[in-house]
Amino acid sequence: MRALLVEDDAVLGAAVAKALAANGFRVQHVTSGAAALAAVVDAAPDVVLLDMGLPDRDGIGVCRGIREVSRVPILAVTGRGAVEARVAGLRNGADDYIVKPFLVEELLARIDAVLRRTRGLGVAPAVVAGDVEIDLARRSVSVDGAEVALARKEFDLLAALARREGAVVARDELLDEVWGTVDARDRHAARRTLEAHVGLVRSKLGRPEVIVTARGVGYRLGK
Q1: Structural domains present in the chain
Q2: Parallel, antiparallel or unpaired: strands 2-6 and 47-51
């Protein structure tokens, strides 16, 4: 399994590369966005670990650049509290994220999860719920083969649930991922907005069962 590690911190990069190699990965370590884009084309890695704070270019731009040429799973690496970076990464092609500092066990689990979701897919990764297909990379949704137009945040909401493979996602986590950081004083109004968007997605798809309410907690993707 080939891993491309994009990390400009030499000490952290060396430690992560060593840990990955000890767990069976062939690791290529680069320290810039330009080198990362070249390596994706030249080396065809199986997974990319992408630091979102690179010295030569914005991590979001690197995500977009990778997605223009490859469907390789991308695990965004961000600093603690960098909610905006995590949200932007997921919106621009990342499949999951991990927050620094992290344990090797968590990193390996995250890599395993994104590989399970995308392994064997020669095209953009898609998630299926009944006759609803959610293409995460192409940002499209179809019902029984017919594409349905969703607004940007409607799709982001559905994609956030799709990435969790049917697990319940808390309302506040969805708000942070889809709408960004919400002030505590505005949480009640934000939750009403979330509920309204859930209703819109259900209505537009004509499949109310595609988003299941976990009362008092949040939502999950239906089966």
Answers
A1: 2-118 (3.40.50.2300), 126-221 (1.10.10.10)
A2: parallel
